[in-house]
């Protein structure tokens, strides 16, 4: 019943033992100087030993202004490479493969942590807590450079690839999203222009590290709101990333589209589907992109049931499935599903996401994170 899910595969040129991905989930377990902590290594070791094929480690932030919180993991300094290497090796020793997500928090940065005003594609407030400043073109070049240096450190640390975090309204996402990007220069306007910063980042990483080091992009396949990214935009963005040399896509979202809403009351706009959302509400977003882009695609979002996972693969909507909170709650989820055993279930309370505002990750069900 879960034949496809447990068939080995290749993603972005990397061999995986199955099609299950643990997506980036910030833990807040890093040290305040961005160093990987022992607690972080053990957290990921447990999840790798649970049988998952690929772990995309939580954001390694690319510079000191890019931190999401006081305890963000860092990829901004060479001194952080040895800790990253221990983490990557630990994951691989357990039979999983390891990517590092790279992120600049942009408009979602906390000025009290970073001592600078958060930066964004433009000054449009949207859902942000603090006022933002618009990046100049010189500053954009600096950001691209910092992404390249962070990717270089990730490769040196032994990660199998990097994922650019261009979702959830962090910096790269603020450029992609017409909900935020009101620029009138080369970095704003149509899809190609809004994608310019991501395109330049992919090209620059490939130029420095060669074509063999995988670079994938996480972005929104759909956004709520009249001006949000719609399917035709998401397809075009995927084609731009493909042409720039990206090796895979990871399709998150901000809300669900009309067809998904049939028979369901209006749902809150979200990147993290909650209790009220149906299962796997973002998979069809990935499916639309998959028809028009020749890159392997990861689907994500409340995929907690192996039958939903298998169906998404069988229907050709994606190539891999990411299982986040379900594996946060029960790290042995893949092994247990493969063996037909019961898993400990996520109750969708989202205490995990709320706990991050206070510091470290917490779970109401799994008290032993
Ligand atoms: C506590 C928490 C932290 C998260 N941190 C990140 C992050 O740092 N980067 C990211 O791209 N997504 C992050 N996400 C989103 C997840 O990667 C995933 O897209 C989301 O949880 C939906 O998948 P799930 O329903 O399987 O949990 C986070 C989600 C949670 C619950």
From TrEMBL:
Pfam families: Oxidored_FMN
Alphabetical list of CDD domains matching this protein: OYE_like_FMN_family
Domain of life: Bacteria
Organism: Desulfosporosinus lacus DSM 15449
SUPFAM superfamilies: FMN-linked oxidoreductases
PANTHER family in the cross-refs: BINDING OXIDOREDUCTASE, PUTATIVE (AFU_ORTHOLOGUE AFUA_2G08260)-RELATED
Keyword Ion transport: no
Protein name: 2,4-dienoyl-CoA reductase
Domain NADH:flavin oxidoreductase/NADH oxidase N-terminal stretches: 5-342
Keywords recorded for this protein, A-Z: Flavoprotein, Oxidoreductase
GO function term, MF aspect, one: oxidoreductase activity
